[in-house]
Design goal:
two-stranded antiparallel sheet; 3 domains; binds adenosine-5'-triphosphate; alpha/beta; binds magnesium ion
Length: 369
């Protein structure tokens, strides 16, 4: 490695190969303040560069525009979401707004913003599909009609970007919400294997010393990820990172195919280190317990009671004290994040390969101890 962090999925590279078109479109929508805030949607499968390109746009506009970003995967209530946005302009707003309704909070946020005569603001609302599936669609109406909050005034908001994977989220909106959302959609298609190769080559050149990897390795990773993980760049970066890490720990001169094979053998597509970073250790142990229970039972679903027994043992093994309430919260969170399927208190399951999941979680939990 020369700089391992350049392979982290949280790193936003200064360039995004094969996303020129989308970036150009984004710039054309947000480079100037128009009469009304622009509403634009980004849409496409996992790991296609939606979040990164919106944040790259934010850095491009930084001389004139501040960006407020929220990922709705982690906020399930409108109040919490508006609070998260507000705290980016007023970090210690917490106490003052405690008794506000979500709507009052939004008005307060806009008021605060409008006091800033130097900058415009851009809202990025990521993973909106997740939130809408929770049932509260009013946020779309509110964020697409910002200009109606203070009639007659011109708001210093450039616009709102909604990011989603699943186009079907729009079907859950009512007709007024749909119409104010509009139809400016920028599409992100899955990368082809060749595009994936270019992207990996680029990220490898930022993170690894020259001569420590070959075209053959990059090509092989692109191949595997295109076939087994729907070309998800996030997964590809994980594979490259862990392969290089293994090579370095072994004291090898460069990354070999065998390192990659090994890593592919235990990484779980659809469960990347970025996803896992959203979990506390005790939550990883909860997920691991569900996996153990499913394996023990050999059935597609298991019940809460069975899980809780396994959970007690697993917690002890890792030196934690089991707590049923924590397990309950963990299951809720795992469900919200899409790690498990929950079809009732007696029907809890996962949809990734169990052995891989167990192996992966055990390695992660143990390496953090
Ligand atoms: N064209 C690209 N060039 C370089 N890196 C890229 C490119 N596209 C994606 N990446 C990297 O892949 C990772 C995942 O991308 P990103 O988070 O933007 O995906 P996403 O479309 O938002 O996916 P999701 O729907 O799962 O949130 C990031 O680390 C990002 O930097
Ligand atoms: Mg994203």
């Amino acid at each position: 490695f020369k700089d391992a962090s350049k392979l982290f999925t949280s790193y936003i590279p200064p360039k995004l190969p094969h996303r020129d078109k989308q970036l150009r479109q984004l710039q054309s929508f947000f480079s100037y303040r128009l009469k009304f805030p622009q509403v634009v949607q980004l849409e496409g499968p996992a790991g296609t560069g939606k979040t990164s390109s919106s944040l790259l746009l934010a850095t491009m506009l930084k001389a004139s525009t501040k960006t407020l970003y929220v990922n709705l995967k982690v906020y399930r209530k409108k109040f919490l979401m508006y609070k998260a946005l507000l705290e980016q302009v007023e970090p210690d707003a917490g106490l003052k707004i405690r008794s506000y309704s979500p709507e009052e909070l939004l008005v307060y946020l806009l008021k605060t913003i409008s006091k800033d005569h130097e900058y415009d603001y851009l809202f990025i609302v990521d993973e909106i599909d997740n939130f809408i599936k929770g049932g509260d669609t009013s946020v779309v109406y509110e964020l697409t009609r910002l200009n109606e909050v203070f009639p007659g005034e011109r708001l210093n908001v450039r616009g709102v970007i909604f990011i989603s994977r699943d186009p079907e989220w729009r079907d859950l909106l009512d007709s007024a919400e749909k119409s104010s959302l509009g139809a400016l959609i920028i599409k992100y298609d899955r990368y082809t294997k060749e595009q994936l190769t270019d992207i990996l080559e680029y990220r490898a050149s930022l993170a690894l010393k020259p001569g420590t990897y070959t075209d053959e390795i990059i090509d092989y990773i692109a191949d595997v990820v295109a076939e087994e993980a729907n070309s998800d760049v996030r997964f590809a970066l994980d594979v490259l990172y862990y392969s290089a890490l293994t090579a370095e720990r072994e004291g090898a001169e460069k990354v070999e195919i065998e390192h990659v094979r090994n890593v592919v053998g235990y990484l779980v597509p659809g469960l990347t280190s970025e996803d896992l970073s959203l979990l506390e250790k005790v939550e990883m142990i909860g997920l691991l317990s569900i996996a153990y229970t499913l394996k023990l039972r050999g059935e597609p679903y298991v019940g809460f009671l069975d899980i809780s027994k396994v959970y007690e043992e697993t917690c002890r093994r890792y030196g934690l004290r089991p707590n049923i309430r924590t397990l309950e919260n963990t299951i809720q969170k795992l469900h919200d994040l899409g790690f498990i399927t929950f079809k009732g208190i007696k029907r809890i399951g996962v949809n990734v390969p169990l052995d891989k999941l167990i192996n992966f979680l055990e390695t992660r939990i143990e390496s953090e101890i």
